[in-house]
Amino acid sequence: MNATQKAILARLRESRVMLIALRVMLKALRATQKAILARLRGLRVILKALRAMQKAILARLRELRVMLKALRARQKAIVARLRELHVMLKALRLRLFASDEGNLGGAAG
Asked: What is the chain's mean pLDDT, rounded?
């Protein structure tokens, strides 16, 4: 075997080693890619769940706003009714006071 043939065989062996190394690297890259895709799918599921939760929270928030508006309206009505009752109570006190004075004046006279 001459020097040229030996050199060619050496290069061939190097190429085989390189090819094996490249195959191993490719296999590792495929495994990494598979893991990344699996994680991405998991994140998509989580994102979908978070969006659904956000939607539910926003719907509940709208409901609470409506309830708060209704409560404020009721509070307003109650305050108005209390004012009316206060005025009526004042009027009753004045009438009682006036009738007491009238009774006292009639008894003394």
From this structure: 93
Here the tokens at position 46 are: 């989580």
Q: What is the pTM of this model?
A: 0.55
The residue count of the chain comes to 109
Which run of H or E residues covers position 2? Answer: none
Element containing residue 1 per DSSP (H, E): none
- Could you read off the pLDDT of 32-76 as tens digits, one per residue? 999 999 999 999 999 999 999 999 999 999 999 999 999 999 999
Residue entry with tokens 């799918």: 41
Helices (H) and strands (E) in the chain, counts: 1, 0
Instruction: Tell me the C-alpha distance between 30 and 6, whole Å.
Output: 36
Query: How far apart are the C-alpha atoms of 33 and 75, rounded to whole Å?
Result: 61
